[in-house]
User: What shape does this take?
Amino acid sequence: MHNGELDDDDLEPPVPSGLADLPEPLADLAMFLRIDEDLIAAAAQHSPRPAPRPSPAAHRDWIATLDTEEKDAILAQLLHDGDPQLLSGLRRRFLDTQPATGPATAPRTVAELRAAVPAQKALRTAREKQRAAEEHDRRVREAQEAQNRRLADLQHDPEAAWQRVGELMTRRGTRHYREVVRLLGDLAALADRDGTTDAFTERYARFIAVHRTKKALMRDLRTGSLDCAALIALTPAGE
Assistant: This one.
């Protein structure tokens, strides 16, 4: 249907139970076949809920209806070779005797099924945005908590952090820039918290004047991280 090989007035096939929650192998197969996930979700609207797991009593009651000779033969075969297909067949026979789990729904036409896809796409997109927002909030919260722990140590000797920045900037290469950005971000946050932003801004401007030709460093300072918004605001835009 997703390739347009069916007419609009064709009816959908019977919808299997559990279509709304495909096992991983089937989900991988659907992705391999490039079946639209929103189409699957639209089809799953008429998917019956999986039947609850039968109780041992229900199994015993059904087994009691089997002929003694048949039960003896089944048990002998299971003991002899543990045939999984035999066990699977028994389970199918048992399930076929169980009442339906819910009322059957009338099959939809292909046109009706296609018309349900946009709503499923909008719902999926909204859920993805919600998950992304929650993940961003979690990362921001964790970054802030980590920075608060660092600031508790930094407030006792902020000059040591400045000295560490100076020492790192004497090294060759760019691998140390991440630590430089973190230290400067912490110093900016500490200054903002303690009301000494003017002093930090002046010193940071001198740092920028010395190192502004280091394009990778300037990029990292402008990009920053979740816990150095105060630093990003003070970093000049790229040239």
Remarks:
- Residues 110-154 form the longest helix (45 residues).
